[in-house]
């Protein structure tokens, strides 16, 4: 059963997506400013889509802020609760490089 996201988590995900240009609707190509909700959402989703783009520093920084860590964990558990086919569609669809890397055998 799919978990429901809080309003804060929904807003954070929305702010972690590009709003214009050819990448509109995809995750931002680099992480948003640290210590923001968008940063936590971007990290949670990018860890699922293309973990190669998430640095160790991102995860350490999140562990320093309990509020952002909780937001990250909420988004991650929501993603995990989605049906497998939806997870796959989001994984491939939110990052422009994921499909190419998957085709090359990185996953």
Molecular structure report:
- 60% of the residues lie in helices and 0% in strands.
- With 107 residues, it is mainly alpha-helical.
- Helix 1 crosses helix 2.
- The radius of gyration is 13 Å and the shape is globular.
- It starts with 6 loop residues before the first helix and ends with a helix.
Chain-averaged pLDDT: 89
Helix-and-strand structural type: mainly alpha
Beta-strand content estimate: under 5%
Sketch the major β-sheet: none
Query: Radius of gyration from the CA trace?
Result: 13 Å
Short description:
This protein has six helices and no strands. It has 107 residues and is mainly alpha-helical.
Key features of this structure:
107 residues; mainly alpha; 6 helices; 60% helix; globular
List the helices and strands and how they pair.
Elements: H1 7-15, H2 37-49, H3 56-64, H4 66-81, H5 84-93, H6 98-104
Helix pairs in contact: 1-2, 2-4, 2-5
């Amino acid at each position: 059963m799919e978990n429901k996201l809080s309003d804060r988590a929904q807003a954070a995900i929305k702010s972690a997506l590009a709003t214009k240009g050819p990448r509109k609707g995809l995750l931002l190509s680099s992480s948003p400013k640290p210590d923001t909700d968008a940063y936590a959402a971007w990290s949670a989703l990018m860890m699922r889509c293309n973990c190669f783009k998430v640095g160790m520093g991102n995860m350490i920084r999140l562990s320093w802020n309990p509020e952002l860590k909780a937001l990250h964990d909420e988004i991650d558990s929501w993603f995990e609760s989605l049906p497998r086919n939806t997870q796959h569609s989001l994984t491939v669809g939110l990052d422009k490089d994921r499909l190419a890397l998957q085709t090359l055998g990185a996953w």
